[in-house]
Design goal:
Layout: E1 6-11, H1 13-30, E2 36-42, H2 46-55, E3 61-72, E4 75-84, E5 96-104, H3 108-118, E6 124-132, E7 145-149, E8 155-156, E9 172-175
Helix pairs in contact: 1-2
Inosinic acid binds next to strand 5, helix 3 and strand 8.
């Protein structure tokens, strides 16, 4: 009984949709007339990416990168490894880049990924995250745009998983 473990809905489908549309507009205005590449961090960002790129009304390219932190159960820690790189691996010097992530927890993953992508000389590099748990931060890292700030609870849905399950929930839920 997989879905029995959900305690409550934290953020509804409608709330998420509204926020993504708002940030899509904001990003569109900021990057109007500029070369823009959205990089989603797999797998968690895939649902957010799909909605965010459709909320952007200027030309935009999308790519994905898969990284893994040594991560077990519900606490993440340790070093980040790139498992799957973007297709334009070496040189990003002709484009502005926005990294899209599902959630920033300790901040380790995105701090490392940002450093790595910065070495490829993008015109600019910013980070947008659907969720932010600032109370859990272990390193000095913040997103440029956080759509929702949440308390220190373990959440699933809208791309976020527990043991690879619940990614397909269309809202954000708190687990038991
Ligand atoms: P960190 O910011 O490096 O600690 O790691 C962020 C990653 O940890 C995210 O991309 C998620 O995969 C995972 N994570 C952190 N908190 C949660 C949560 O509440 N639910 C599901 N995954 C989480
Ligand atoms: Mg993730």
């Amino acid at each position: 009984m997989l879905f029995m473990k959900i305690k409550r809905t934290l953020i509804t489908e409608q709330e998420i949709e509204r926020k993504i549309k708002e940030y899509g507009k904001l990003i569109s205005r900021e990057y109007e007339g500029k070369n823009l590449l959205l990089i989603g961090i797999l797998k968690g960002s895939f649902v957010f990416m799909a909605d965010l790129c459709r909320a952007i009304d200027i030309p935009v390219r999308v790519d994905f990168l898969s990284a893994s932190s040594y991560y077990s159960g519900i606490s993440s820690s340790g070093e980040v490894k790139i498992k799957l790189d973007i297709s334009q691996e070496r040189d990003l010097s002709d484009t502005h880049v926005i990294i899209a992530e599902d959630i920033i927890d300790t901040g380790r993953t995105l701090k490392d990924i940002s450093q790595l992508l910065n070495q490829r000389n993008p015109l600019s590099l910013k980070v947008v995250t659907l969720l932010d748990k600032p109370s859990r931060r272990a390193v000095n890292f913040n997103a440029d745009w956080s759509l929702f700030t949440i308390p220190d609870v373990f959440v699933v849905g809208f791309g976020l998983d527990y043991d690879e399950n619940y990614r397909n929930l269309p809202y954000i839920a708190e687990l038991e």
